[in-house]
Structure formats: C-alpha cells, structure tokens
Write a structure and sequence with these properties.
Layout (H helix, E strand, L loop, with lengths): L7 E11 L4 E6 L5 H4 L3 E5 L5 E12 L2 E6 L5 H4 L6 E5 L13 H4 L3 E4 L3 E11 L4 E7 L2 E6 L5 E5 L4 E4 L13
Parallel strand pairs: 7-12
Antiparallel strand pairs: 1-2, 1-6, 2-5, 3-4, 3-6, 4-5, 7-8, 8-9, 9-10, 11-12
Length: 178
C-alpha cells in the first residue's frame, strides 16, 4: 500500500553514490539514523515532487552517512539520477522510541512555555552542536535558543502540544532588550 504524502517524514537526502553496486550516500536529517537503518521500504522524492516507492536491498551506517541500496537498482548507472532526492518513510513504520525520546515531527510546532517568562513562542527548528541539540523557538521574545538538555526541559505534553521549560537567566532577553 502506498502511503499518503502527508504521512511521509523526511529522513535524509541522497548526496551521491558509493561504489559500483548502486549504493546511495544518504545524509540523515537526524543525529540518530536508526529509523533509516531499520527501513524495509523508502520513498524517494525528486526535485519535481515525484514520489517513487523503493524496497531496501541493503542499508548500513558509514561514517556520518547511511549507505542505501535499493532492490532492482543495484548498479551505479541506475541510481545516479537519484542524487538530490529526499528519502522519506511513513510515520507508522518508524521504530518505537523509549521513555523520553521524541521524533522531530512530534516536537515541531509545540508551544513553548517558560516557568518564569511564560509563553516563549513556537518550536520551529532544531540544529545540532557537538555538545547537544538546540531548539529554536520564535515568538514574542524573538528567537530563543534552548539547549535540548534534561535540566532545561521540564515536561513535553504530546497531547497538549506544549513544552514546559525552566530556563536560566540570560537565555530569554529582558523586556527592555526586545
């Protein structure tokens, strides 16, 4: 069964080919590529938006990328046109997470509230540093960068679409700085 486009999540981007057997170099969009490594089937979306369903023949982590081989496309000439495609997967096929782990799609768009400052805005982006991920919240204080560490994140309410944080002084601009 083909997934609806709205049900697909971007897992990575094909950045090139590797070897002669048709392996695709995929740059994962998350620090943890486990969802991509567990995939049995992926969707490729080209620059024009066309989706192609592909069965996975082989997949493995290689340095900071994932090498992906697709059934029926097992030579370099067959996969060269796929460079630049997005790699997607249906939400329902993502591996289950444990405890306090979340996929980005579950966090994106959450309302973020600080214990002292109140409503900070909406969680719009995330990026990684060598130390940890950083959440980018945009709202009445402009752009607030929040380290995604346990000491600052008090609670994430999936159903209520809200994140409660307890930020130290200096992370949120003072009223006269805005």
């Amino acid at each position: 069964m083909v997934a609806a486009p709205d049900d697909l999540l971007r897992l990575g981007v094909v950045t090139g080919t590797h070897g002669l057997r048709g392996d695709l170099k995929v740059r994962p969009l998350a620090d943890d590529p486990s969802a991509l490594l567990a995939a049995h089937e992926v969707y490729l979306r080209d620059r024009q938006g066309k989706l192609t369903v592909c069965r996975v023949a082989a997949v493995k982590a290689h340095k900071a990328i994932v090498l992906l081989r697709l059934q029926g496309l097992e030579n370099i000439d067959a996969v060269q046109p796929m460079v630049g495609c997005e790699v997607l997967m249906p939400r329902g096929e993502l591996p289950a997470l444990t405890g306090d782990e979340f996929y980005w799609f579950e966090l994106e768009g959450l309302s973020v509230v600080d214990r002292r400052c109140g409503d900070l805005g909406v969680l719009e982006e995330m990026f990684s540093t060598a130390a940890h991920d950083i959440y980018v919240v945009r709202g009445r204080y402009g752009e607030v960068l929040i380290p995604a560490v346990e000491e600052f994140i008090v609670e994430i309410d999936r159903d209520g679409r809200r994140m409660l944080v307890d930020l130290p002084d200096g992370l949120v601009p003072e009223k006269d700085e805005i």
